[in-house]
Amino acid sequence: MSASAERIPEAIVCKAIEWQMRLREHPDSHELHAQLQAWRLRDGRHELAWQRMRQLSGHFNASQLPDAAQTNALLRRAETDLGRRRMLKLLGVGAALGASTLLVSKAPPGWRSDFATATGERRQLALASDLQVMLNTNSAVDVHSHALTLRAGEVLLDGADWRAHCRYALCDGKQARAVLREQQGYSELHVERGEVLVRASSGMRSVQAGTGLAIDAQGMRALAPGPLDPFAWSRGLLMVSDIRLGDLLAEAGRYRHGWLGCDAAVADLRLSGVFRLDEPALMLRNITHLLPVRIVERSRWWVRVVPA
């Protein structure tokens, strides 16, 4: 397959978009340019994604579009706004001009969904008087009356009767409050109140309050209570009990831009606590009080927890 036709993994495409947004915010940052260069050199697909993104951006120059000022404004808003369908239309314009080889089908789910959230954002949707829907960070859904399709991320549903499609199942809630989350390779359901009837290719199962279920292409399995409260995010909290530090940072990283990780020497340390999602800096400081670790922060985009 030629380089111009190669399909790039969605995660790499999203990262290239993120780099472009960061450079627009800080175009004169020498450190940021050095980090981008290192990322581009790390993998040939990184460089290919970056070049395609630059080609795509080139279609919004003043010399190429009749109303460039308005188009550029739409492009900037589309990268941060929830109305990402406008961005998809702009991508279509770029493809029609014939120079972009970026595959629109691999665009982030939020760009082609009815509702979406950005990194660190939580959003309450006003869909019906008897149904409450809340999106967690980096999530996307399509909505049709009381039927909802989770495209990416995580959603909380609370109402008398509702229907939700996820990657591997159809879920019908009866007086239920539940969370659906798309994980790597499976869909996850947790029920806090009521009952959810789950239909998958492997059969049908009723999930009661206080229980959880993992669904994939092979079947369904019950989920034992884990160290993470699956409903706390809807209250702006990250509540954990006896969780590995590595797992805590992976979860916390969903709510912030950039990279957040830890040294292997401290990854298995365990802790419990309640942290505010809207105060990530305070969360990291609290971790240093709970465990023998310290924070290494090269920039707000690169944070590592290491032994004290």
Automatic annotation (TrEMBL):
InterPro entries: FecR_N (IPR032623), Ferrdict_sens_TM (IPR012373)
Domain of life: Bacteria
Residues covered by the FecR N-terminal domain: 16-56
UniProt cross-references to Pfam families, sorted A to Z: DUF4880 (PF16220)
Name this polypeptide is given: DUF4880 domain-containing protein
Organism, scientific name: Pseudomonas urmiensis
